[in-house]
Specification:
The structure is a homotrimer.
Chain A lengths: L7 H21 E3 L23 H18 L7 H25 L7 E3 L1 H21 L5 H25 L8 H18 L17 H23 L4 H29 L7 H6 L3 H5 L9 H31 L7 H21 L3 H4 L3 H4 L1 H4 L16 H32 L21 H6 L1
Parallel strand pairs in A: 1-2
Helix pairs in contact in A: 1-3, 2-3, 2-4, 2-7, 3-4, 3-5, 4-5, 4-6, 5-6, 5-16, 6-12, 6-16, 7-8, 8-11, 11-12, 12-16
Subcellular location (chains A, B, C): Membrane
Keywords (chains A, B, C): Ammonia transport, Glycoprotein, Membrane, Transmembrane, Transmembrane helix, Transport
Protein name (chains A, B, C): Rh-like protein
Chain lengths: 449, 449, 449
């Protein structure tokens, strides 16, 4: 009777994409030297492999991507299969694509060197379309999501290269390049796919059930717990330890603030699970870009307090306003969890950069702000000449977020237009937020509820 | 109509507490040297940071605190938001407070040095009020819980200092200072808040649903899996490896024993999920204080068997008796999971200490029992003179648990009195074990069930 | 009225087994030297303990065993207590038994040396009966399961010794010795316990509910995320890094393929949660035996694509056929997740072994294929003389899987016969897939649904 929610042809295209990946891996990817056997006459360096010392942090990030994001999105009452399943599907596709895309930007001798570092980067890249998915949750087909993620990751890799290697901004925890990019890209797509004005009211399935809210807490708590690994994985030495400490404290302060503000602004002063599931994590985003800087414990806590407050107020006032006035639904409220906290992080990075001195950062200055030291490595093309001063670096931080927003929003609008006006199957209003259009759902259950 | 279950003023007080923390962090806390940049002319020590080598274990403990405790307490059918949410709220507040409180006891030059070690300690401290929360689950407001946790952690830090640095007891896995303290403090508070004698019967919400029981198993299994990290994180070298091995074996033996004893003593020989969720973990508590000693595999297994047996029998016979006769509800049965197994651990520590010799422990004796070696470090003030003998050390182990019980129960009674007789809102019987008094609960769901 | 589903006598026997373990630990097990105190006059080697460097990977595997397997099996609508509970029960029993059984094969001076390595091996051994449990899920009593696991682990240890130390096959991730053994042993037991031909239709409880399917995704995602740790834990250096990379890529490719093939072959092109929960993991099994070889990224991706395809087709066509024609129910479809992908892995290992050269593997050849180098260590008894050539090694790989299948199926038939025809209580058809026969299930809930 009714047409299936996802076309077969879409799945076939995804299979072809997978096979193209296979061919590209075959043509371009080789193990890095550290993952190759030692020459038979080389001295044995022992069994310890320094190059996998980040493996525990990689695993923490894996949990964040696959369990954290997946379960955070199970809060919708009838969309749990899709939340966990499509997260797995999208992440599995994106990690391969990210190895290739990011690899193409750093090839040596026409080959991509594959090591643990590449799959850490790939996991971080997978966060980007998963954030965007949060803005669209329940209102696209899986085919649309997957195709979006392929476009998005390519743009993300380009923007990240620009921000880190051309503008030389600092962005240790990726709030600018990952969170802001993912959030605003997703919001732009959502804007393009927004409902007609006579279909703007929230559907009854656009909410949680008691059980689905608890499933979502699995996602929240794992993201909370492992966030220090996400922020610190690309930092080394003392900077890595600071990234851990600052992220931990910012999260803790954001969490306390979230509960308090949630109670103060909510109906009957009851706590709201949406705030608890999401705004508690805003501290991790807001501290991201600056997590390895010399914030001090108080700096981290202050950022957390601001992030928790802004995020809860966003959920309480801004999101309903955007739904009513812009018809922008933002199902998971990624603007409040990723978007605004990332802007806070970018602003904080400009403030701290403007105060950075050699006297304070000593030997780390050239790692954290390479353009300020005049030691441009082989890959770093410093804009604005050598030996940027602190004020100039602060300006570049703001420039970095501005360019990121531009590329993300522009790319999102284009992608959204492609998803809407080309041959993709678009969901109708009454097909939103329901697993049963793409999944075989247990029959009895389906009737009961 | 009805007054909200938590007063706004309480949340405001918590916000003020958070801001006081911010000020204290600003005044007193500085990064430790390991987390500060190297001088620009210092030789680069490489990217490896020895000081974060415990990071993977820290992350395991984070999972135990936030996911383990949180989900273990979701077993009540209508209290899952509170179990997971208040765990997050309390732990986020306590970790900050613990960094400060424990820091004040170890200041250098008027400042607290912040490093990974401090937040490991803070996570361990967070376990203490979470254990107490288990005894009170569903019968307090969040404001009461949070205020309790602030008092409790201050007392905990003082008692821990006394036990470890004044009495010089061994307590590697914290069964005395963490588990016994948290359990008996919580029970003392519960005794103060106990219902009037005509309201003593268990409410219909004081039980599990099929789904909530499975959610609780998430907590159980993560606690089970990561318990070796909790017990071993403060041990080094060979002692750390023994702590892992002994904890693992004790948990395994306690688990097998729990299932068998549960079937033997239960109605119709059916297994009881309460036992499976909790008593399986008693092996981790009971081996805690002695986990780095030379127990041998058989010693660890024996402790596990005893702990599993005692814990199940406690749930089956002692808890109902306490509810009926003392009106002490102990919602999660923390007396059976944390209290009695911690006493077993303390007794075991006296036994093993009484047999400790230099010949056996060699170079580790001074780490494990510093008072026995006469090498008193700067912080260790040995009571009873230098060079304690083994019998004397055994006596101090028992003295340590006795003082801990005294402080925990005394502190709990005082705290309970404050929560009951001052301006705090107390819950009425029919408000117990229900999320909907503090949380916005999905409307449809709420009507359905 | 009705007899309890598990006899008391069975539980008593298990307690006796636990006490026998205690005695065996006391008689035979001692800490390894690395876990013993240094002599008091020895130089301090620092606090770092090289011997626990695999601890983070051990913890990942713990999560796979206790959370991964446990929750993957919660997909049945009324069997969640048993899935999580019996996993815990079985694994706790088996890890102790595996330390002893595998220890007896490697004793030194009549004693088993206990170190972290032993409990890593024990966790891997625990996977074996858990895989078999998947084939039987819901159709045995816990006593039958536990007794089966005791037989099975003994046979597993013998077969593994034969394969690795006598035939000198490579099997880094254990697809042959763990996955194939566990799957075919379980299937053989299931065949022995198959229903009478007039009782062959699937019961209405042999399926998922909406909530139980999401619980199962907890298992799937944790297995997915930590699978690289399982495959790489026994590899060192560069081989370990390759094991991580290959497993990751194979899983990703298998996941994409699973979604696509699931949509293509399912009714109305809807996705099937059974495929998503299981076939996505087939990539981890199929790459297991060869994960440390020089597959290249494309090799790993190709194996993943094949595994995902075969696994989904197995669920869609082969399992229903086996149920209809052989009355073999295979509740979790372990044949599609573990059995066939393990065969693929064995065949791949023969292919890659046949192409292995010293020029390519350099110094690693003697670690990976010890029989090819003629350097037979103390334990390695090379069959077929010294210096096996590549073709011969390929033959041994196939011989290894053949012998494994023979022992697994033979042992499974024998064990199944013991479980069926001796004094064990067997479940009746209408007792299948229901927790309430062994568990106290919440009363209200039970009536409602």
């Amino acid at each position: 009777m009714h047409s299936p929610a996802a076309k077969v042809s879409g799945y076939v295209v995804l299979m072809i994409v997978q096979i193209i990946f296979l061919v590209l891996f075959w043509l371009f990817v080789r193990y890095e030297k550290t993952a190759m056997p030692l020459a038979i006459d080389a001295e044995d360096a022992g069994s310890a492999n320094e190059h996998v010392s980040k493996y525990p942090q990689f695993q923490d990030i894996q949990v964040m991507i696959f369990i954290g994001f997946g379960f955070l999105m199970t809060f919708l009452r009838k969309y749990g299969y899709s939340a966990t399943g499509f997260t797995l599907f999208m992440a599995a596709l994106v990690v391969q694509w990210a190895v290739l895309m990011k690899g193409f930007l750093h090839m040596e001798g026409g080959k991509i060197s594959l090591s643990l570092e590449n799959i850490i980067d790939a996991d971080i890249a997978a966060a980007v379309p998963l954030i965007s998915m949060g803005a669209l949750l329940g209102r696209t087909t899986p085919i649309q999501l997957l195709c979006m993620s392929v476009f998005e990751v390519a743009l993300f890799a380009a923007n990240e290269y620009l921000a880190l290697h051309v503008f030389s901004i600092c962005d240790c925890g990726g709030s600018i390049t990952v969170h802001a990019f993912g959030a605003y890209f997703g919001l732009a797509v959502a804007l393009m796919l927004r409902p007609a004005s006579d279909q703007n009211e929230a559907g009854k399935l656009e909410g949680a059930s008691y059980t689905s809210d608890i499933f979502a807490m699995i996602g929240t708590t794992f993201l909370w717990v492992y966030w220090p690994s996400f922020n610190s994985v690309l930092a080394d030495g003392a900077g890595g330890e600071r990234a851990i400490l600052n992220t931990f404290l910012s999260l803790a302060a954001a969490t306390v603030t979230t509960f308090v503000v949630s109670a103060l602004v909510s109906h009957e002063n009851k706590l709201d699970m949406v705030h608890v599931q999401n705004s508690t994590l805003a501290g991790g985003v807001a501290v991201g870009t600056v997590c390895n800087l010399l914030l001090g414990a108080h700096g981290a806590v202050l950022i957390g307090i601001i992030a928790g407050t802004v995020s809860v107020l966003g959920y309480r006032y801004l999101t309903p306003w955007m739904t009513a006035n812009l018809r922008l639904h933002d199902t998971c409220g990624v603007h409040n969890l990723h978007g605004m906290p990332a802007l806070i992080s970018a602003i904080a990075s400009a403030i701290y950069a403007s105060m950075a001195t050699v006297g304070e950062y000593q030997s780390e200055l050239q790692d954290i702000f390479p353009a300020m030291m005049g030691t441009n490595g082989t890959e770093t093309k410093i804009m604005g000449g050598l030996g940027r001063n602190a004020t100039s670096q602060a300006g570049y931080q703001l420039f970095g977020i501005a360019v990121t927003l531009l590329i993300a929003i522009g790319g999102g609008i284009l992608t959204g237009a492609v998803l809407k006006y080309t041959n993709f199957r678009n969901l109708k209003k009454d097909e939103h937020h329901q697993d049963e259009h793409y999944w075989e759902v247990p029959a009895a259950e389906n009737k009961e509820e």
